[in-house]
């Protein structure tokens, strides 16, 4: 690879990093309807990826690297399109395919991101089904935390989100989340 090509490829990596960094400052817009809570797209993607990491251990036949990678990039287009909530989607259509194709132009890594996002969106492979459930479990985790600290609106949202789960693994983890309190983990060995 010539020095100029290497420089251009390195610049594409830098651009990709700055684009991904936009997700750390982009708030998830659905929290407006909850009246409580907040989360960036990057925070959500991290939690989704971590849940996928766990799911891959629970289901060792799935491609663990693929499911975690899929979760990490599933909302990547939102760096360009923004995060549209359910009301906004009634009036505005995000051109996610265009956003992803422009990000991927002339960049081999971009093609793999596009492929992962497309597989996630199609939801047909086992990895995609689990990653989509992890996406919902990340939201369930936030709703449960808000519920535990006294917010009332999660009571309205949780039944709808639970209906979106498609795998037994997802439903099992949702049950575990809903059977716990958000602060149980650190109170178990509490002492002064």
From TrEMBL:
The EC number on file is 3.1.3.89
**Reaction equations catalysed:** a 2'-deoxyribonucleoside 5'-phosphate + H2O = a 2'-deoxyribonucleoside + phosphate
One Gene Ontology cellular component term attached to this UniProt record is:
cytoplasm
Look at the named UniProt entry and state the broad enzyme category this protein falls under. Answer: hydrolase
A Pfam cross-reference name: HD_3
What are the names of the required cofactors?
Mn(2+); Co(2+)
Q: Which UniProt keywords apply?
A: Hydrolase, Metal-binding
Task: Decide whether keyword Transcription regulation is in the record.
Answer: no
Spell out the subunit comment.
Homodimer.
Q: What is this protein called?
A: 5'-deoxynucleotidase
Identify the species of origin: Desulfocicer vacuolatum DSM 3385
């Amino acid at each position: 690879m010539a020095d100029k090509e290497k420089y251009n490829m390195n610049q594409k990596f830098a651009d990709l990093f700055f684009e991904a960094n936009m997700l750390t400052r982009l708030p998830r817009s659905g929290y407006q309807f909850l009246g409580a809570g907040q989360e960036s797209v990057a925070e959500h993607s991290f939690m989704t990826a971590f849940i996928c990491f766990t799911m891959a251990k629970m289901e060792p036949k799935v491609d663990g690297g693929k499911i975690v990678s899929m979760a990490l990039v599933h909302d990547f287009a939102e760096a360009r399109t923004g995060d549209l909530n359910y009301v906004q989607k009634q009036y505005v259509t995000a051109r996610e395919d265009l956003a992803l194709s422009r990000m991927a132009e002339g960049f081999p890594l971009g093609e793999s991101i596009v492929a992962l996002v497309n597989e996630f969106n199609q939801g047909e492979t086992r990895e995609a089904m689990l990653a989509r459930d992890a996406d919902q479990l990340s939201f369930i985790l936030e709703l449960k935390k808000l519920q535990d600290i006294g917010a009332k609106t999660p009571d309205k949202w949780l039944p709808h989100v639970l209906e979106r789960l498609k795998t037994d693994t997802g439903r099992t983890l949702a049950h575990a989340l809903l059977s716990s309190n958000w602060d149980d983990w650190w109170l178990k060995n509490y002492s002064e």
